[in-house]
Specification:
192 residues, mainly alpha, 7 helices, globular
């Protein structure tokens, strides 16, 4: 079942990455004709890293033999929410003169609202892997998810540029640290 389901998840995550990378590519190509915003670019990088990390983590579901209808739709819904989160960062097309600072703040509530949903959906998805003995939940996960949720809520409710600048950098550092620590823990566990 996972091979069949994995294709669907891969397509959804692939579309999210395509949209983000296409948007960044357009920003680079049109850098003299658009007004990029560094916070927007960092959030784009953050979402790319998150999508790749979640895509990697979805592989653990390969160990689940009995899929239920509800669980299938939950995981598919989680992937769709991630796609919508990624899609909120760039319009499908943008013309010369596009101001990405204005675009980011005009779409801020959608972006962070979906981000809150993505972070909340990650909790049962990750914990269920532990319950089903598909993988151990890293010790740092509770701190990690609480920090991401706090950043998401702050981003949703504030429009202060300095705070948004700090939030995108803090998110990046937290995600990279978590990925590093959980990877090191898995490597150490293999040799223990």
């Amino acid at each position: 079942m996972f091979d069949y389901f994995g294709v669907l998840i891969s397509v959804i995550f692939g579309l999210a990455l395509t949209h983000l990378l296409r948007g960044l590519g357009h920003l680079i190509q049109m850098r003299h004709e658009t007004r990029p915003y560094w916070v927007h670019v960092v959030w784009t990088i953050n979402v790319v890293i998150y999508v790749l990390g979640i895509w990697w983590g979805m592989y653990w579901w390969k160990g689940l033999e009995d899929w239920t209808f509800e669980w299938f739709f939950f995981i598919a819904g989680y992937a769709i929410a991630i796609f919508m989160w990624a899609y909120a960062l760039f319009p499908a097309e943008f013309a010369p003169g596009a101001d990405f600072s204005a675009y980011f703040f005009a779409n801020r509530r959608w972006f962070f609202g979906i981000q809150v949903a993505v972070v909340l959906a990650d909790i049962p998805e990750t914990l269920q892997k532990g319950v089903m003995h598909l993988r151990q939940v890293p010790v740092q996960y509770g701190y990690f998810i609480a920090a991401l949720l706090l950043i998401s809520i702050l981003g949703l409710f504030t429009d202060k540029r300095r705070i948004h600048g700090a939030l995108c950098i803090i998110w990046l550092l937290i995600v990279l640290t978590y990925l590093f620590l959980s990877s090191v823990a898995r490597i150490a566990a293999r040799f223990a």
